[in-house]
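Schema walk-through. Below, the input block comes first and the output block second. Nothing else is stored per chain. Lengths vary across the set, and this one has 511 residues.
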Amino acid sequence: MPLLFSELIAEQPVLYKQGDLEVPVRGIAYDSRRVEQGYVFVAIEGFQTDGHLFIDEAVARGAAALVTQKPVAAPPPAALVQVPNTRLALALLSARFYGYPGRRLRLVGVTGTNGKTTTTYLLRAVFQAAGSRVGLIGTIANWIGERKAPVQHTTPESLDLQKLLAEMVLAGVDTVVMEVSSHALALHRVAGCSFDTAVFTNITQDHLDFHQDMHDYLEAKKILFTMAEQYAVINNDDPAALELRRAARAKVITYGIKQKADVVAAGIKVHRKGASYRARTPWGEVPVNLKLTGCFNVYNSLAALAAGGARGLPLAAVAKALEGVPGVPGRFELVDRGQDFTVVVDYAHTPDGLENILKTARELTRGRLITVFGCGGDRDRTKRPLMGEIAARCSDLPVITSDNPRTEDPLRIIADIEEGAKRVRRPDEYVVLPDRRQAIAHAIKTASPGDVVIIAGKGHEDYQIVGTEKFPFDDREEAGKALEERLLKEGKQVISHENHDPRRGSQGHRR
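--- output ---
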């Protein structure tokens, strides 16, 4: 029997109601174009448009009931309720409609500026090794067990999230590892979910186009730790650790390298193909030999190890699972065609992320460090000069280019980046090539034996957003083509390395 609209909204604070609420509900939509006969249409005031403007269209398509935030009249024959917040209402209605699937799964949420994606992949491996059937929700892909599903947002809109969780329950999944973005927390996308464990990686400047300031950004992150019921796994080396520990309702497990913590890494060694350390934990000590390089990945693995250890999984088995992860797509991913220099594609798109990746690359560089990067349009402008300064300071040759300009002028974005670069270098000491394809090709043509070329910002993305359109573009493919063209011109053999296929990661980076 389908739920009645009155049952669906029973726990909602209703400000006003109109019409017959005893109508059966066949589905829910927040996009009027997706409304079908017998659906509830939830009108959300968005950042681009307002769902309240499409109420007539929704009813014409068959909406039986409406949920609004603004005082509007319902076109007959639809019923209507007005609530204080339709985003929150959408999440709670969706959870109720799909039978609260989040309560039937062990949800592990990972939040932080950098490191979420890699940490979720490591956690997935840990829980799989323990015999769980694991779902994953994140930036690169959603996985329902071993089946891949498409991604629209790092954390899906609440209706899409609840539908996805319901599919996972039907598929026999018992544990879901989820990236939880600050947007998702601030916009109530995960309301109605019951988290077993919350994991915090770090917080550095990002998303200030959305959040008022860093305090507002942190407040959004803290919401996850008020929702976790069993464990709160927190990076104790991050300055925000104390606030997050205070916000947590669950048992706190800390990890780190510099500060005292429950789970620590000692004797860290980082090399081109990985990193190793000895983990000291409340459950004993164990050596860990990662296939992921960089100190940032030591942190990511410590987070996963702490979450697995807190759950009571055998420490040796957790370490073995971490060691078995070959990499994450677009995270310190090597592009190798047999050249005598190193090319790496990475998703680093924040000041901290870029600095981390360049510091790691510097440790592995025998020659020059060449960095190709840009900044996204319609996003936080204040980080652009910061990233320009970091690239100019940490690289031997910065190549400034376009990222996803969206509706902004790419040259204006580049000018913002140059403000920072000029603090460190003269204009003739860096290169500006707005065309990203040309910038990648230039870096590869310029590279000498022993150099490292970092192509940062887009990682796994296989598109570039110009205006409001997506065009096919993959940094890994472009780098591969440029390498092949150079090697063929030089009369050298092109070697295709399947283990560095663009669809797979060869290393991991924070995010």
